[in-house]
Amino acid sequence: MESLESVSTNNGSSVKKSWWWSTKRKGYQAPGPSRSSSSGRRSSDEIIPDELVVLDESSLCNVPMELPTGVSNDIASKTFSKLSREDQMLSLRLNSVHESMFKKVPRQFTDALLDPGPPSKEKQAVLSVGRPSWLPPKSKAEEKRHLREFEQIRKSALKHDKLNEKEKIKQMEQQRKKNQQLIQLWDRYIFRYWPDSLTSSKVAGVWREGIPLRIRGKAWQKIIGNPLQLDYQSFFLACECAKKIAHSNENIQTQETNMFRYDKSALEVDIECTMPQLHLFQKGEALHKDLVQLVSAFSAYRYNVRYVPGSTFIGALLLLNMNLTSAFNAMVNLLDRPFMQAVYTQDKEALASFTNLFLSSLKKSLPELATHFQFTLQIQPDQYLYPLLQRFFIPMNSVEISSRIMDCYLFEEDPFLIKVFVALFSQLKYKLLETDFRLLQNTLFYQRWELGEEDEFMKNVFEASIS
């Protein structure tokens, strides 16, 4: 039974006291100050009458489980140590805490499934390293053997990591030397004796090694050329034309679009899908404004419309390697080629020879997939071939592979793209054997392609046959 009472002290402050009514019986020593501590030990047969034990809260006998903010465990421990042994035992009993509360023991986090409870002191003496406490301990010989094996595994893993790191450094150094040699070849020979150097046996196929990033923009401009005789002012004149089209009446604009439909949202959708992993072309990013200006100027210059769907992807690839005005000149001249014009206008007659060559190559290299497209899905090449050509494989591909494809396409021209299609479909074969055309569209146009390493995929492209 417990009761609370406020007792006035000598200095006038009120102290709350807890009165605990305890019964002492034969063979039981109640915790608390003992009246016979000075007169000797009591007999175990003596019946002790009930007595009151008074606990003064001002002396912190009732040690709280959670100390107030600002009160350290050291202060509580010092105050607790000043109490008599009986008061300490009673305080601990009333609060149901253990003496180890006042010791700085690191907290142990155990898995309840593997180690449901802390082991006893006796069990700790024989526990094995890394073994749950509820399992029998290992023998000393077995434990030593396992520790030796673990140390061997650890050293082997460290050695393997060091070898991998050295191999990566070695590959990077080899790639750096290779790029340096290629840069010297392009600067000292190919660009110097352009275009006669392209027919040399020493230069034949050097672009298949990949044009170094530092000179890629210059090489692209050289091979694309400037058949339209564009100059520095051409870009700004096209920008002014694009602004006029943007502010023109929508009905008049729709009549002037010819094969293209004016749709402002198409530009926004394509920009969001343009190399999102680089965070350069989306709204609010560094090259967003440049890309919008580039594709708007190209669309207004070439087709007298606000935007040509799919042109943002090639425009972004050019902007990564050259400045805005140079990218505009290269884009207009590149997409003015007959094949690219047919792609963006979807001229089936102009693309008939390319389509037939692709279908015959697909039947020879991947007959199962060709049969699946023609008879199971009953789809035409323009449903999957032309959209990929308009996007130039860029949205679903890595920037490195897309750049390598552009390197080779500019030098080897249209038939090279058939090799790319054959290698690509061979890589995605099992995903393209879907019986639902919507799943095939998802694989080709919306999912990222896992084509592996850049050099490995390009090797498959070069090995693909055209028939």
SSE blueprint:
Layout: E1 2-8, E2 14-22, E3 51-56, H1 73-82, H2 85-95, H3 121-124, H4 140-190, H5 213-224, H6 232-247, H7 250-256, H8 264-272, H9 288-303, H10 311-319, H11 324-334, H12 338-345, H13 352-365, H14 367-376, H15 385-391, H16 399-412, H17 415-427, H18 429-432, H19 437-446, H20 454-463
Antiparallel strand pairs: 1-2, 2-3
Helix pairs in contact: 6-9, 9-10, 9-11, 10-11, 13-14, 13-17, 16-17, 17-20
Q: What is the overall shape? A: elongated
Arrangement of strands in the largest sheet: 1-2-3
Annotated CATH architecture of the largest domain: Orthogonal Bundle
CATH topology of the largest domain, by name, is Cyclin A, domain 1
Helix content: 40-55%
State the low-pLDDT regions, or none: 1-71, 96-109, 253-258
Number of individual domains:
4
Give the tags:
single chain, 467 residues, mainly alpha, Helicase, Ruva Protein, domain 3, 3-stranded antiparallel beta sheet, 20 helices, elongated, disordered N terminus, GTPase activating protein, Rab_GAP_TBC_domain, Rab-GAP_TBC_sf
Task: Walk me through the structure.
The chain has 467 residues and is mainly alpha-helical. It has four domains: 101 residues, no CATH class; 63 residues; 112 residues, Helicase, Ruva Protein, domain 3; 120 residues, Ypt/Rab-GAP domain of gyp1p, domain 3 (Cyclin A, domain 1, Orthogonal Bundle), CATH 1.10.472. The protein is built from 20 helices and three strands. It has a three-stranded antiparallel β-sheet, with no helix packed on it. It is elongated, with a radius of gyration of 41 Å. 21% of the residues are buried. The N terminus is likely disordered.
